[in-house]
Amino acid sequence: MLIFKLENILEELGITKNHLSRESKVRSSTIYDLASGKTKRLELDTIKSILDYLNQLANSKDINKVYTIDDLVKYVMVVG
Description:
This protein is 57% helix and 8% strand.
């Protein structure tokens, strides 16, 4: 099972889904689906655009963190 953690990152950075969509140039429906865990597939270019903007914003806010794909998506093995 995949767990999407974008909503937590948005809260950390104090931005909205619309803000991320606009600045990362990723469709708002893609951002909303990712934040709500409804995403069925992600393009690597999309992940890169999101991470590039999140890291740029974190740097401008002097947040000592580099966001990676591990911060966006977590894999949990479901047994049984």
